[in-house]
Amino acid sequence: NHFDMEAFSTVVVSLSNASEHSGGLYIQPTPEVTSRRVLPMDIGDALMHRYDLNHGVAVTNGSRHSLVIWMSEDAASCADGTSPWYARDAEVGDADAQWNLGHLYKRGERGYAQNSTLATEWYIRSAEKGHPGAMNNLALMLEEAGSLAEAEVWFRRGAEAGEVNAQLNLARVRKAAGDAFGAAQWYGRSVAQGDPRGMVALGDLLEETPSVAAASGRTTGELYQKAANLGHGEAWRALGRLHEARGDPGAALRWHLIGANGGEPDCMLAAAKQYLEGRGTEQNLEGAREWLTAAAATGRFPEAGELLAMLEGASL
């Protein structure tokens, strides 16, 4: 879910009927996913909202199409690509506007020059008003500045208020501190909100820590599969790793190919290596070349380019 920071107001016109898909456009007034409300829309239905509406789209089955029109408040802000309304609302104490103004200063966007000090100041003002998202972003700024203890305080406050990103970050901090059970607790809270990042992270933790796995009542495969069903790319690679570790390279390759075809660079590289080595399949140099080329093109993995060069050299 998000705010439309580039638009003063947004018009969404549905080009699909609600019967064509499950889910759709939703509003979420609080960080907790339980506050999410889907707005059923049929062809021709239109919704207009301001920049201060926290919303998103989640489609689990079928397909949904819409026409989205973003509008500025006047010709000047449209021409300049600026969002002056955030500063106005932030100055009068709107916590959402203060949070988003912090984002804009952090990124240096929409007419606000990049300024980490001002970003932090606006995150503080929003967090002190009880904004869970701002608590998480303030904690990230503090962590980056080396104030780790204070950062954890704000991560915890945001996590306890239901902010899923704060829950994930607090879990990460507790894991780094050697507190696997504390990490599992907060990853579990994010999983309860349906976050696939938390599903993969908790699955990794269970795989690494048998004592936590024994106490959790969950299985690694179940968590990875649930995240994969949500289309989360990291889950495809995680399932591939899991099947390889359990001695089933054929199943690993199937998941790597699903991920590769879904655009995941690490799955492209993993599938290429299996083709090169003939693991879980017959050796397939053309398949290896295809996925090494695709992985190298993403710029994420220098190893893909190196393997591709070796493969091309060997074929001369």
Would you mind describing this structure in some detail?
The chain has helices spanning 75-80, 84-91, 95-107, 116-128, 132-144, 148-160, 164-176, 180-192, 196-208, 210-216, 220-229, 233-245, 249-261, 265-277, 285-298, 302-315; strands at 9-14, 21-27, 37-38, 46-50, 55-62, 66-71. It has 16 helices and six strands. It is globular. 60% of the residues lie in helices and 11% in strands. It is mainly α and 316 residues long. The mean pLDDT is 94.
Largest sheet: 3 strands, antiparallel
- Annotation field: number of helices: 16
Radius of gyration: 23 Å
Strand tally is 6
The CA-CA distance between the termini, in Å, is: 51 Å
Spell out the blueprint of helices and strands.
Layout: E1 9-14, E2 21-27, E3 37-38, E4 46-50, E5 55-62, E6 66-71, H1 75-80, H2 84-91, H3 95-107, H4 116-128, H5 132-144, H6 148-160, H7 164-176, H8 180-192, H9 196-208, H10 210-216, H11 220-229, H12 233-245, H13 249-261, H14 265-277, H15 285-298, H16 302-315
Antiparallel strand pairs: 1-4, 1-6, 2-3, 2-5
Helix pairs in contact: 2-3, 3-4, 4-5, 5-6, 6-7, 7-8, 8-9, 9-10, 9-11, 11-12, 12-13, 13-14, 14-15, 15-16
Notable characteristics:
mainly alpha; 316 residues; 16 helices; three-stranded antiparallel β-sheet; single chain
